[in-house]
């Protein structure tokens, strides 16, 4: 049996993971779960999977959990360190699915403990950068990407050696505003931005997909994960989201991974790697699909992608600042305080004004993230 810890179990990746685990009860055991505050979901998951430990970020949620399961044999942890504590308990695989830079400490804790990671939290890699992967490599900890594009590239890289790779192709859906005008995007409401055409994802990821800041974060993630220069990572829109990404080799071959847009495939592979198990997702029907369409990204509508490239080229705290500014801007957009097109504008301002202020080693990253978020929040306040 392979033991699993899921960090961020109540989110959409967590839910895909639970569906996958239900198909493979004879292969996996769900040992630990961590979540923010959804104690009702935690009760259900514990009852179904019999987890040994449950960690809540919110201590009131932990109290509610214990009150409703007074005889639970599960250990209950609470507070901001709960996810990291569970991440460092020895298991076969930790699924890191907490959203945003808040996921960094638990990813670091899992690596320090030598736990293999199925990485769904792209922001932790964007903030930790290459040193995070170097640490993982030095500890012999495999980091298996769960982001669908990176899972695709990871799989396509099995077709050749790194020396044979010429470039990576990261695909994007284009999100809900692919065919909208800039004017329509300026007036876009959170409801419109949350209507993603293909993928069902969490709140932040969905807004990020509407601005393509998500693709910017993924570009940075891919550069680190696969040791590839920004200039060798192309981004192309595939509106149906069936081609999840591709790798171009020096002999002219392009190796792509295709499938239905359903996260159970990438989550399942992240958990079961190097094996492939049934995910519950049907194979793609190419005859039903008929055609594969592609479009280039309009840089005027989606400036976030170019800003991510600049942040990556600048190096240092560029990626961390890009992420912090985006997190602050997305929150402001969701609460109706900022227009959609002002998200990239805030990222640009913060990159210009904040560069070089947030540098340090890996252990400093959580503090640097907090300081960068404060800085970006102040920049936003200064604008309005
Ligand atoms: Mg993705």
Biggest sheet: strand arrangement: 4-3-2-1-5-6-7
**Overall pLDDT level:** 96
Largest sheet: 7 strands, parallel
The radius of gyration is 20 Å
The computed structural class is: alpha/beta
Q: How far is the first residue's CA from the last residue's CA?
A: 55 Å
- Tertiary shape: globular
Q: List low-pLDDT spans.
A: none
- How many alpha or pi helices? 17
What ligands are attached or bound here?
Answer: magnesium ion
Order of helices and strands: EHEHEHEHEHEHEHEHHHHEEEHHHHHH
- Tell me what portion of residues adopts beta-strand conformation: 5-15%
**Strand element count:** 11
* Helical residue percent band: 40-55%
Report a brief summary of the structure:
The protein has 384 residues and is α/β, with parallel strands linked by helices. It has helices at residues 12-23, 39-49, 59-68, 82-87, 104-112, 122-138, 148-156, 182-186, 190-193, 203-211, 213-225, 264-272, 286-289, 303-314, 318-334, 342-354, 365-383; strands at residues 2-7, 28-35, 53-56, 75-78, 93-96, 117-119, 143-145, 165-172, 233-237, 243-249, 254-258.
Structure description:
The protein is an alpha/beta fold. 47% of the residues lie in helices and 15% in strands. The strands form two sheets. Strands 4-3-2-1-5-6-7 form a seven-stranded parallel β-sheet, sandwiched between helices. The protein has a four-stranded mixed β-sheet with strand order 9-8-10-11, covered by helices on one side. A hairpin with a 4-residue loop joins strand 10 and strand 11. Helix 1 (12-23) crosses helix 12 (264-272) and helix 11 packs parallel to helix 14 (303-314). It is globular, with a radius of gyration of 20 Å. 51% of the residues are buried. Magnesium ion (MG) binds at residues 147-149, 218. Magnesium ion (MG) is lined by residues 147-149, 218.
């Amino acid at each position: 049996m392979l033991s699993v810890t899921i960090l961020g179990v109540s989110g959409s990746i967590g839910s895909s993971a639970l569906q996958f685990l239900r198909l493979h009860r004879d292969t996996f055991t769900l040992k630990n779960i961590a979540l923010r505050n959804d104690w009702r979901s935690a009760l259900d998951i514990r009852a179904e999977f019999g987890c040994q430990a449950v960690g809540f970020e919110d201590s009131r949620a932990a109290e509610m959990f214990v009150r409703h399961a007074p005889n639970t044999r599960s250990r209950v942890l609470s507070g901001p360190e709960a996810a990291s504590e569970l991440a460092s308990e020895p298991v076969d695989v930790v699924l890191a699915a907490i959203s945003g830079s808040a996921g960094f400490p638990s990813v670091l804790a899992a690596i320090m403990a030598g736990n293999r990671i199925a990485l769904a939290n792209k922001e932790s890699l964007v903030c930790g950068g290459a040193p995070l992967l170097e640490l993982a490599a030095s500890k012999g900890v495999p980091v298996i990407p769960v982001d669908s594009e990176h899972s695709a590239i990871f799989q396509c890289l099995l077709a050749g050696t790194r020396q044979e790779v010429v470039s990576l192709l990261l695909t994007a859906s284009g999100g809900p505003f692919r065919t909208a005008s800039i004017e329509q995007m300026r007036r876009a409401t959170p409801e419109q931005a949350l209507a993603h055409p293909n993928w069902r994802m969490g709140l932040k990821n969905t807004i990020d997909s509407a601005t393509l800041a998500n693709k910017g974060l993924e570009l940075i993630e891919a550069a680190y994960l696969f040791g590839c220069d920004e200039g060798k990572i192309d981004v192309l829109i595939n509106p149906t989201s069936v081609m999840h990404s591709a790798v171009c080799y020096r002999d002219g071959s392009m190796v792509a991974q295709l499938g239905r847009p359903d996260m159970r495939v990438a989550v399942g592979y992240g958990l079961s790697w190097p094996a492939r198990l049934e995910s519950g997702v049907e194979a793609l029907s190419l005859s039903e699909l008929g055609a594969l369409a592609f479009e280039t990204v309009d840089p005027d509508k989606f400036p976030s992608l170019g800003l991510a490239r600049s942040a990556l080229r600048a190096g240092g705290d560029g990626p961390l600042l890009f992420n912090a500014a985006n997190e602050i801007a997305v929150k402001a957009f969701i609460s109706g305080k900022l227009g959609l097109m002002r998200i990239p504008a805030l990222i640009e301002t913060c990159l210009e004004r904040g560069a070089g202020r947030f540098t340090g080693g890996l252990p400093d990253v959580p503090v640097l993230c907090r300081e960068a978020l404060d800085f970006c929040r102040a920049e936003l306040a200064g604008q309005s």
